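Bit of a strange request maybe. I'm writing a small parser for structure token strings and I need a real example to test against, not something I typed by hand. Could someone generate the tokens for this chain?
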Amino acid sequence: YQGGAGGITLRAPIDGTLVAVNAAPGGGVTDGHVLFHIARLDRVWIEARVPESEAPRVARPAGADVEVDGLDTPLVLEFGRSARLVGVGGVVDPVSRTVPIRFEVANPHGRLNIGAAVRVRLHTGDTVRALTVPASAIVDDQGVSTVFVQRGGESFERRAVETT
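Reply from user aminoacidic:
Good idea to test on real output. This should exercise your parser:
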């Protein structure tokens, strides 16, 4: 507050947006009283609460799909690329019986609100780059799994494929 006599200038130790003010000009405060809440909104943390029975499977997740109410498609995140894994909790919450996994994601358009509930699917397996085709495109040709690739016009090429 700089408007009146005896005012004290406060400087925040971080950049961010002032999201809550818990003091009034001229009001009294006590030791430990939180005056302001500043949040960085351009990058947010998402916390997934994983049931303790599943925690060993997600000790090193590779990424996550995050569904946010109001967005048409989920955010697909790859840790180390489009998101940063902040940490995997090592203590089970005694009430919820869950382990927290936190990750940071860019929020340039403010689509993710702090405190909002989201649905998270963690990627727990190894990522594999592979070509996929609909199961209906695979033909059993004398015991060999086969697909036909259109080369142009009415020209098709027969290719044996391995399914997994």
